TrEMBL record:
Transmembrane segments: 28-46
Domain Peptidase M24: start-end pairs: 162-378
Species for this entry: Vulcanisaeta distributa (strain DSM 14429 / JCM 11212 / NBRC 100878 / IC-017)
Name of the protein this chain belongs to: Peptidase M24
Pfam families xref list: Creatinase_N, Peptidase_M24
Amino acid sequence: MVYAVPTREFERRLNLLYRVMDEKRLDAVYIVNPINIAYFIGFYYLQTERPVAIVVRRNGDIYFLGPLLERDHVLSQTKLVSRVYTYRDYPGEVHPIRLFADWLRELHLDSSAIGYDASPGYVSYWGYKGPSLTDLLPNAKFVNISDDIYSMRLIKSDVEIELLRESAKWSNLAHSLLQDYTAPGMYDYEISLRASLDASIMMKKALGPGYKPLRSEYPAYAGFRGQVGEHGAYPHSISVERPIKVGDVLVTGATADVGGYMAELERNLFVGKPSNDVVKYHETALKLQDAALNALRPGVKASDVDRAVIRVAKELGVAEYLLHHSGHGLGLESHEAPFLDVGDETVLRPGMVVTVEPGIYVSGLGGFRHSDTVVIHEDYVEVITYYPRDTESLTIEI
C-alpha cells in the first residue's frame, strides 16, 4: 500500500509540465503557489511573508529559491531539487525578489520565456510588497500558465485516488471514535481532541515509522467546527460557547492526511432520540444528497448536479434553507475546482474527485448535512467514504 507520493508520480507530473513548456515554447517555469510546489516536487512548508519559489527548467533541472531557514528542510523532503539558492530573511538588506532576479540571470534565464503560476513575484496571506520579476528582468517573456497547471490537478492519477481511499478509511475510524466519545455535558473541543488523538495514534501505529502527515501536525482529525445544536444552522460556525446537551443536532467532520491528500467525511449526529422535525429534515438532507449522487456522472456539467439538488429542494419545500452549493473538488487542497455549483460549466470527467454535500440549515434548530468523497470513473462513480447515514445509526443513546 502506498502512503506517500512515489517518485514516479512526481515524474509523471513534471512530464505534463514539460509538455506545456513545449507547447508554449517556454525555457522554464517559475512556481510560487505552495500547493503547486508540493504537487510537483513534494515539498511542504509553512508559508510566511518570506518569498519562496521553484524554477523548473526544460532540461529537467529544478532550483529552489527561498529563505535560509528552509534550506535543510527542502533537501530533507525531496531529491528532485538540483540546486538551492537562499537568502537570510525578509525583507533583508536586498529584497529577496531582487536576489531571485540575480539568480535567474546566473542561470542565463534573464532573456528567456518563463511560465508562472500565480505571480512573477510572490503571493502570501500577508500580501506582497516589492518589485516584480517582469520589471527586474525586462528582456524575459513571462507567460501565465496557471490554468494549465490547474487543469493537470483536476484529474487525479491512480496514485492520488489510492491515497484518498486510504484517507477515507482513517476518516471513518476518526468519526467512529467521535461518535463513541460524544455525550451531553461535554464541550465539542474535548470530544474532538480525544477522538483526533486516539485516531492519530492508531493510524501512526498501523502505518508504521515511514508514515508522517504533511498538511497538519497530526494524522487524523474529527470534530464539529462549532456546529452544535442551534449553531449548526451556521455552515461555518467555527466554535460554540456551551457544552453539548440532550436534543442537539450535531454536524460532524472527519479526515486523515495520507501523502498530503485528505478525504472529506461529514455526518449528522443526534444526541438522544431525535424529534419528528429533526428526523424530517435529516431525511430531506439525505434525499438532496441522493439527488446529487444520482446526477453525478462523466459528461455531466458540474452545474447540472447543483441544479438537480435545487430542483428537489424546491419540490420538498426546503429551497430557502440551501445556503451553499452541492459540493466541490478536493485533492491537495480541501476545496478545489470543479465546484458543484450552478455557475460552474465544467464537464465532469473520469479521474475527478468531488465532495457531495448539499445541506439545509434551519434557524434555531440546526444544520443537516452529509458529505461524502466521490471518485468519477469512466462508467460509474465511486463513493469512497462509507460511514452510515441512517438516523438510527447516527443517534447517540442517552
